[in-house]
Amino acid sequence: MSPPTASPATGEAAARACMASLVGSLADNKAALGRRYAEWAISAPTLESAVAAAAMAQDELGHARSTYPVLKALGAEVSDEHPHPLALLDDQLPDWAALIAANLLVDGVLTTFVAACVGSSVEQMAARAKKILQEEGSHRVHGEAWAKRLSRGDQRDAFVARLEETWAEASRWLGPDDDPAYAAALEAGEVKQTAAHQRELIRSWLTAILTAEGVAIDLPDPTDFSSWDPERRRLTA
Fold this sequence. Notes:
By secondary structure, this protein is an all-alpha fold. 62% of the residues lie in helices and 2% in strands. It has 8 helices and 2 strands. It has a two-stranded antiparallel ribbon with strand order 1-2.
């Protein structure tokens, strides 16, 4: 006997719940990333990078502020009492290599998702996506420049280790490739690209940059989601 097929109403509810989880977590991570960037604005290795960290912090906090209201359009409550960013953003980033890894991969994962929301059927998110992407361009330039710089110096091995640690967590943010709730959101047009495609975009982009510098890195697809919380979109252990 064939398994029962979910009704359209059930599929719509699953899509909205998934999208609310993604958007809420996007805002939480944007806010946390802004705080972590700001903490390095006075201790970055150069004056130029300190100014860049402060500017990126301001952008991220602004993105968070403008994204939270999208939750209302999705029928979800807006609360800033219990934010749930990725675990690696719970505390201050330990060194500059960790900040650049977050710049490249945490910000990269979030921005790639935002790009996948251009043209979303959630009109409020689609409108904000265009503005966010405009401001994220400078963040990408900053991350790429520092990736090349760190790949050429004596911090290369430590930097690659930070990237791999960050990817292990950030790559799980979108959830497993076979998540039925994400599939429902994709079917509803609320997001326009699969999780697998978004991960591949980030992997191919960063791998190309590092390969050009003679650096090899392994950014595998995540497979173990046993300790992943789908509502908070982070590892629980």
